[in-house]
Structure formats: structure tokens, C-alpha cells
Amino acid sequence: MDEISLDKRIDLHMHSLFSDGELLPSELARRAHVLDHDTIAITDHIDSSNIETIPNLIGAIEDINDNWDINVLPGAEITHAPVEVISKLADRARNLGAKIVVVHGETLAEPVIKGTNFVAVECGDVDILAHPGLITEEEVEIAKKNNVTLEISGRRGHSLSNGHVAKIGVEVGADLIVDTDSHSPDDLITFQEAKLIGLGAGLAEKEVMKALVDNPKKIIKRRK
Ligand SMILES: [Zn+2]
Ligand SMILES: [Zn+2]
């Protein structure tokens, strides 16, 4: 992945019709390609009820990866699952072929079960803790130790705590990533827009570039 130029976008948190997104994986990939994305991960919402759909998603993106100049990674976002089963679901998702495992964190915009952030950072199978709300310093320390990347969200509502996540992430030295959590065509953004979201969260330019380029590449390399 070393050939990625600085203006190629990588977005590792997006939804398709496999859950509550509006677009087929191919439509999502097509729009991402036009907006100059190098790589996207399709991370549809899962829990025990639909985790077995991951192989279908993998089948759905094979044609895209074979024929188009964009990398589409199969993933999953463990969403509103009881905290007791999150690590089991992460392990299962991984075994079913998910390359990018996201956990739907304790956003300020929804009543996510308390303790979700903690088990997500503790579990070695999770790559990204999405929209982690008012994540604690202790949890950020654990995320750093376990290579769990914390999300700066482009999504309305989830983005309310971006400033807090950016500040505590930089203080502790945990990895950050700017993802859109796209559900609709209008949610996709360019590299430049992602940069503004990082700056708007209070990150310095150098930290923004790490969040847009180095950190997503690190996750992809780890899970290849
Ligand atoms: Zn989410
Ligand atoms: Zn999401």
C-alpha cells in the first residue's frame, strides 16, 4: 500500500444495503472511486442475528476488487451487542473473513450500552472503536496498548465528541482515524474534506495526516 499518494482517501467505516446503508457495495465503491478513494471498508452493522452475512458481503465485493481500481475490504461493525458477547462476535467476524472489525462505541448520539468502549479496547480482534463519545483516559491507554484505533467521525451526532477524542488521543499517543460512517451517497467525502474534519476536531496538521494516511495504512497492513 506504500504507493498511496497523500491525496488518496482511505475510509474504513461505511455501510451498504447489507445493513442500513442506502447503496449496494458496488454503488458505494463507484462513488468512492470517483471521489478518489484508494481503499474503503464496508463495515455493516452486525450482532449475533446477522453475523453470518459476512461471507455474502465478501462474495459481493469480489467482482469490484477484480475489475475496478479501488480496494474494497470486507468488514463489520459490531453494534449494540451485549458487552458480554462483543469479543466473541469480533472473533467470529474475523473467522468469517472480516478484515476490518469496528465496534459501535459509546457515541453521545445514542444510548449505547455502558462498558462497550472498555470491552472494545480490551479485545485484541477490534481494529477501530467508532465514535467513542466521552472515552476515558484509562480506555485510551488500553486502546494504545492493543492497537485499537479511535475514530474521529464525519457523521452528524457522532461527531459531537470529536474534540474530546482528538485531545485525549493525542495526549495518550493512541492512533486516530477520520472515517465518515457513510450510510448515504452524500456522506462520502474527499481527502480535503476529511482533512478539515481532523483540523476541526483540534488536531494539528501533522496529526491529521497520520489519521488520514499512516494509521489506516497501518491497520490494513496488520490485517492483510
Ligand atoms: Zn456506529
Ligand atoms: Zn457505522
Q: Report, as a whole number of angstroms, the end-to-end distance.
A: 10 Å
How many helices does DSSP assign?
8
User: Which fold name is given in CATH as the topology?
Assistant: TIM Barrel
Number of strands: 8
Ligands bound to this protein structure? zinc ion
The CATH homologous superfamily is named Metal-dependent hydrolases
* CATH level 1 name: Alpha Beta
H/E series: EHEEHEHEHEHEHEHH
Total number of distinct structural domains:
1
Q: Sheet with the most strands?
A: 8 strands, parallel
Fraction in beta strands? 15-25%
| Uncertain ranges | none
Q: What best-fitting shape do the alpha-carbon axes yield?
A: globular
**From the alpha-carbon coordinates, what is the Rg to the nearest angstrom?**
16 Å
Structural features, described:
The mean pLDDT is 96. Strands 1, 2, 3, 4, 5, 6, 7 and 8 form an eight-stranded parallel beta sheet that branches. This protein has helices at 25-34, 54-67, 86-95, 116-122, 137-145, 162-172, 191-200, 205-222; strands spanning 9-14, 37-42, 45-46, 71-78, 100-104, 128-130, 149-153, 176-179. It is built from eight helices and eight strands; from the N terminus they run E-H-E-E-H-E-H-E-H-E-H-E-H-E-H-H. It has one domain (10-222): TIM Barrel (Alpha-Beta Barrel), CATH 3.20.20. The relative contact order is 0.16. It is an alpha/beta fold and 224 residues long. Strand 6, helix 5 and strand 7 form a beta-alpha-beta unit. The site of one zinc ion has 5 residues, from loops.
